[in-house]
Protein: 3-phosphoinositide-dependent protein kinase 1
Organism: Gryllus longicercus
Amino acid sequence: EQIKHHHQQQQQQQQQQQNHGKVPQDLKYSALDYVFWKVVGEGSFSTVFLATDIRLDREFAIKVCEKKHIVKERKVEYVKREKEVLSIINSRMCTTCPFFVKLYHTFHDKYRLYFVLSYASNGDLLPYINGKKFNEKCVQFYAAEILRALEHMHRLGIIHRDLKPENILLNENMHILLTDFGSAKILENQTLESEDKSLPNHRSRSGSFVGTAQYVSPELLNEQSVSFASDLWALGCIIYQMVEGHPPFCGRSEAEIFQKIRKLELNFKDTFEPKTKDIVLKLLVPDASSRLGALDRGQYDSVRSHSFFLGVDFECLYQKTPPLQP
Ligand code: ADE
């Protein structure tokens, strides 16, 4: 044992000398530091596992991507973007926002990339709203947490572009944790706090359609341009879905959904609360710059002050017990 230990120490010393005494971030951890328990999420090119850090005896969600698969599927940019966005959100937390999945560290081996993330033990929001109807207080609470998360991202110049219930995870206390930033857009020098108030809206050309059909905004469909307000459109869709149990624009094909979005073809039942209907219709405005909040800077004051949010203390959401049971 002693010889083995000595040999290991020697090896470590050699390695540290080679690295000029520094241990690179990505070498500090390896898959051997974790026990992988089960799959908790699956994407087209990644699998998320519940894992325990053996040394810390603490649970994490580890997103694992096969290197070969990412290259073959041309998702390298997607993975890089996700890491970049998570790093920005986690590092520039001058005013901490608890509504995001935290990236603890990354590492890789010959075949795979690993993202060690906070584990959201209550899964995603979708099963809680699919085919069910949230009560008013519940819709209000989750809409408020999502809005707070959007304010934080947008202040940092990040547009999510794929906001949907599957990407809204729930922690052990049922507070939200936004995730999946592979489709996000980082706007350089163009944040919500930018001084240039003459800009009617922050737009940037982007290549092709990103996101998910049901939540995609008309500007993403028609002009391939994107703005912070694209995420506000998605918020409008999610508020509707929390009330009705299904998204506002449904169809048997993507084409059918897109047509409904373009024509703003959506129905409200008579039972739909008027002030909720009002905020949904103000968020689902086809012209992005006319959408509720589109002209706000730093904080979505015009959204916060809508009568739908009456009585909500936006600063104390995380201190409250969420109105939803696991
Ligand atoms: N599914 C995808 N990401 C997850 C996470 N961070 N925690 C739990 N389930 C997940």
About this structure: The chain is about 35% helix and 15% strand. Residues 134 and 232 are 20 Å apart (CA to CA). The longest helix spans residues 136-155. The longest strand covers residues 34-42.
